[in-house]
């Protein structure tokens, strides 16, 4: 689905991403992990068009998308969420979802004058779709609540819901578990898995909660100092001595080697 070839992103003399080449396969959930400052979010921003790479290429389904702006990538089905949720706080949860699809008839003044019935039909369809999304995510009970009043975890679910309002092909989730309690994190994880299995979504997930990564991901990419350090199945990654040294911590080395991957990963966070 996504292929990055020799991606570099420099900010002055700082090489935030330093020669990254990787593949995110279609139909999979891929984890992206590494210590703070490893270049994970910068790489997301390059792929999603927020930053243009200093050099290198990004392709999506064989098409060169290097440097395309976010709105063009959005139209191609590439979506990105952020560590801090970006909701329209004074609007209802339902209205937040209905705002997502582009090209709505009501966006032009002319249509509001002469095509009111068309606008009404579109809004009815969007409302029905938004309600289905809220049911899917378990947020139907807060549909009329102002989005700004939601908990951190509910806001992350709402961001996930936005991707369901359009024809998303691949979704990049940046620290979806940050500030989220364990119960809601499990709900978010279940929704991601269902979207992947039932609707064919491809995901790439940055997350420091290694138990969450181990439960969700088919494969994991590890970055350190702007480079790809390792890539493989979660059970293999957690036993990789380079990853233990760079990310999991030398003090965990013996514990990791003596436990199952899932058990060893519980509660591990970046230093």
Automatic annotation (TrEMBL):
The keyword Transport applies. PANTHER family: CONSERVED COMPONENT OF ABC TRANSPORTER FOR NATURAL AMINO ACIDS, CONSERVED COMPONENT OF ABC TRANSPORTER FOR NATURAL AMINO ACIDS-RELATED. SUPFAM superfamilies: P-loop containing nucleoside triphosphate hydrolases. This is Amino acid/amide ABC transporter ATP-binding protein 1, HAAT family. Residues 2-250 form the ABC transporter domain. GO terms for cellular component: plasma membrane. It comes from Mesorhizobium australicum. SMART domains: AAA. InterPro entries: AAA+_ATPase, ABC_AA/LPS_Transport, ABC_transporter-like_ATP-bd, ABC_transporter-like_CS, BCA_ABC_TP_C, P-loop_NTPase. Keywords: ATP-binding, Nucleotide-binding, Transport. It comes from the Bacteria. The lineage of its organism: Bacteria, Pseudomonadati, Pseudomonadota, Alphaproteobacteria, Hyphomicrobiales. Signal peptide: none annotated. GO terms for molecular function: ATP binding; ATP hydrolysis activity. Belongs to the ABC transporter superfamily.
């Amino acid at each position: 689905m996504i292929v990055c070839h020799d991606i570099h992103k420099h900010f002055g003399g700082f090489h935030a991403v330093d020669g990254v080449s990787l593949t995110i396969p279609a139909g999979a959930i891929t984890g992206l992990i590494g210590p703070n400052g490893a270049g994970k979010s910068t790489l997301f921003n390059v792929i999603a068009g927020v930053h243009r790479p200093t050099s290198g290429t990004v392709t999506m389904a064989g098409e060169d998308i290097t440097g395309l702006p976010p709105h063009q990538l959005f139209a191609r089905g590439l979506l990105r969420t952020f560590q801090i949720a970006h909701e329209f706080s004074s609007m209802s949860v339902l209205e937040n979802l209905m705002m997502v699809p582009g090209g709505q008839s009501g966006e032009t003044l002319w249509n509001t004058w002469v095509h009111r019935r068309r606008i009404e039909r579109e809004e009815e369809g969007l409302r029905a779709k938004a309600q289905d999304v809220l049911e899917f995510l378990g947020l139907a009970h807060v549909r009329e609540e102002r989005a700004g009043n939601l908990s951190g975890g509910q806001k992350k679910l709402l961001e996930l819901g936005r991707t369901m309002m359009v024809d998303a092909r691949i979704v990049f989730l940046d620290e979806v578990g940050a500030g989220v309690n364990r119960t809601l994190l499990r709900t978010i994880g279940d929704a991601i898995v269902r979207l992947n299995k039932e609707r064919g979504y491809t995901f790439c997930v940055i997350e420091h909660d290694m138990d969450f990564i181990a439960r969700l991901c088919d494969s994991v990419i590890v970055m350190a100092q702007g480079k790809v350090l390792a890539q493989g199945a979660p059970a293999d990654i957690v036993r990789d001595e380079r990853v233990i040294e760079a990310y999991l911590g030398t003090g965990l080395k013996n514990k990791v080697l003596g436990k199952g991957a899932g058990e060893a990963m519980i509660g591990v966070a970046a230093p």
